[in-house]
Design goal:
It is built from eleven helices and 17 strands. With about 450 residues, it is of the alpha/beta class. One of its GO terms (molecular function) is glycerol-3-phosphate dehydrogenase (quinone) activity.
Length: about 450
């Protein structure tokens, strides 16, 4: 897309990941004009495709019911983004997000407002709140309660999935200790014309085959390889666009529950979530600008006046700006030799000691690593501050660029991304409608 100096939006979002898209969809739902600038591949392509809310508290203790734990958690973590959102708004955000993903063709399932486990690529169990149907649904839950026979099956030659390792770790968990867990292999149907041998394929290559093939032959191979299994765990490659149809057909033809187990990246469930978010954003009228990096933002008198892009060297303006660039992985924070920094606006960070002090020598340190909670300092409404302590009134920060939380050790990355994106979109709408007096019924926010 050609950018130009006359382009002006109600809201301009920097970052096209989970939080930026959640914010953008919220803005569009409120009738605002919105554009997103994305520098490249979203971190969702490396994620499980599930949305965590609160997985661990206190410390490494698994949380069964996040909403039961949240009041105490917020009392003990007053600087956490959840404390600034409020529990009722978190609930609204999750309901809105689930509704919009269903409209985009990606229904998300939850366990009666409680956490459920999803199986990782290593066969460990991780608590999460929303998952795609191939990872969690009520049928899977009811079968697991009756010690099913499980087969974890790979596609012969596929190198990015290791069923033996997954099965061994799964057997160690008390939920599956009484289950009969086996491993098996099957080959891709020979009638599928594959341009490359399977051992050279990544998950996305096999998923594209599933998108175009007739799943009946695959169902026959599954029945032959594991006739006695109640649940069959397959690598998460059951298509990108047609995964629900493929899942339904395999379930119907095999009589077994088909469960997707994550592979090494790229993650197909993560890509599906990314595609659904972008599809919904576009369908609602949003402008998504790919492969465009914001080089610098200009702040004057406590307000962002413009941002400059790197590739086309254009200057863009908007009423409000949202920084949703993520943490170190996505380049939202950068680590230099002696410090860390936020590269677009040079905002104040909650942790800015020497970079070498941000990690523990023990990779599996119980308390985690300090860099995981590094991020931008904001006020209670997610307006950031400059190094001089000045609040930037028309700039918000959402998601992993924020300080005050540890997405890994608290198991809350997806929930923070969705909640802060949602509440920020609503605050922007309230600010615009309040200024123009076009809308008087906008509800109060915390």
């Amino acid at each position: 897309m050609n950018l130009n100096n006359s382009t002006d939006y109600d809201c301009l979002i920097i970052g096209g990941g989970l939080s930026g898209l959640a914010c953008g969809i919220t803005c569009l739902a409120e009738g605002l004009s919105c554009a997103i600038l994305s520098s490249g591949m979203s971190a969702l392509h490396f994620s499980s495709g599930s949305v965590d809310l609160l997985g661990y508290f206190p410390e490494a203790t698994v949380v069964p019911d996040p909403f039961d734990a949240l009041p105490r958690f917020i009392d003990m973590h007053s600087e956490h983004p959840y404390a600034r959102c409020g529990i009722d708004t978190i609930k609204e955000a999750l309901a809105f997000f689930r509704q919009e993903m269903a409209r985009a063709g990606l229904p998300l399932h939850e366990n009666c407002s409680r956490n459920h486990f999803h199986v990782t690529a290593l066969g460990t169990l991780k608590p999460t709140f929303f998952s795609q149907r191939s990872v969690f649904n009520q049928e899977i839950r009811s079968v697991i309660d009756h010690t099913p026979a499980i087969t974890i099956m790979n596609i012969q030659g596929f190198r990015d999935f290791h069923p033996g390792l997954a099965a061994a770790n799964l057997k160690r968990h008390k939920l599956f200790s009484a289950c009969d867990i086996q491993c098996a292999e099957m080959h891709l149907p020979e009638k599928e014309k594959n341009p490359s041998p399977v051992h050279a394929m990544r998950s996305i290559d096999i998923a594209r085959i599933f998108d175009t093939m007739d799943p009946d032959e695959m169902a026959r191979l599954i029945r032959t390889a594991c006739p006695d299994a109640d649940i069959v765990g397959l690598p998460a490659v059951l298509g990108i666009e047609r995964h629900n149809a493929v899942l339904d057909r395999l379930r119907q033809k095999t009589g077994k529950i088909i469960y997707e187990v994550p592979t090494l990246p790229p993650s197909m469930p993560g890509m599906r979530l990314d595609n659904a978010l972008k599809s919904r954003f576009a369908a609602m009228g949003g402008v998504f600008i790919q492969r465009e990096t914001v080089e610098k933002g200009t702040i004057a008198n406590g307000r962002v006046t413009a941002i400059r892009t790197k590739n086309q060297n254009d200057t863009l303006t908007a009423g409000f700006y949202v920084l949703s660039t993520g943490s170190f992985f996505s380049g939202g924070l950068v680590s230099r030799f002696d410090q860390i920094a936020e590269p677009v606006f040079n905002l104040a960070l909650a942790r800015s000691p020497e970079a070498r002090c941000l990690g523990s020598e023990n990779f599996f340190a119980p308390g985690g690593h300090a860099f995981l909670s590094a991020g931008v300092i904001t006020d209670d409404t997610f307006h950031p501050k400059t190094p001089a302590g000045e609040t930037v009134e028309n700039l918000f920060c959402t998601g992993a660029v924020l300080s005050g939380y540890d997405p890994v050790n608290q198991g809350c990355g997806g929930g923070v991304a969705v909640a802060t994106g949602y509440v920020t979109g609503r605050r922007i709408a309230r600010g615009i409608y309040s200024a123009t007096r076009q809308r008087q019924d906008y509800p109060d926010l915390p």
